[in-house]
Amino acid sequence: KDVVITYGTFDLFHVGHVRLLKRLKALGDKLVVGISSDEFNKIKGKTSFFSYDERAEIVGACKYVDEVFAEHHWEQKIDDIIRYNATIFAMGDDWKGRFDHLEPYCKVIYLQRTEEISTTSIKSQLSQI
Ligand code: C2G
Q1: DSSP letter assigned to residue 77
Q2: What pTM value is reported for the model?
Q3: What is the rounded CA–CA span in Å between residue 95 and residue 97?
Q4: CA-to-CA distance for 23 and 27, rounded, in angstroms?
Q5: Looking at ligand 1, which atom is closest to the CA of residue 74?
Q6: pLDDT digits (tens, 9 = 90+) for 87-99
């Protein structure tokens, strides 16, 4: 019974997010997703268009996602892995190597990002209309 855990802001939910979540769910039986809080986004240097509540509702409505929870800071992942009995931690490969310290707790996998789409590119294209 593999539980997969991942994290992200998931602002302006798009096919890059969906294709990642679909592949993550296929890795196990359950997928839990940590959604970055608005305060944690500030720490990450991001401002999201949608609030934490809206982003959590949208990702929670995705059929590949079994549960969402709040990501408040960088240091909570080990506690989350233990709390959810996660056996696989996975992220897009823009994070490759950055979470290898989690290997003692669960498998760590980096999946290929979907090319040509990102929240940043959506925002910049919209700002030029
Ligand atoms: N992603 C993807 N393809 C894209 C865009 C995003 O596969 N075209 C993936 C990212 O690699 C990430 C996830 O979708 O695994 C969520 O992306 P973001 O919302 O940008 O998440 P990020 O700000 O990287 O937050 O503690 C970890 C951080 O919270 C990760």
Answers
A1: H
A2: 0.98
A3: 6
A4: 7
A5: 26
A6: 999 999 999 999 9
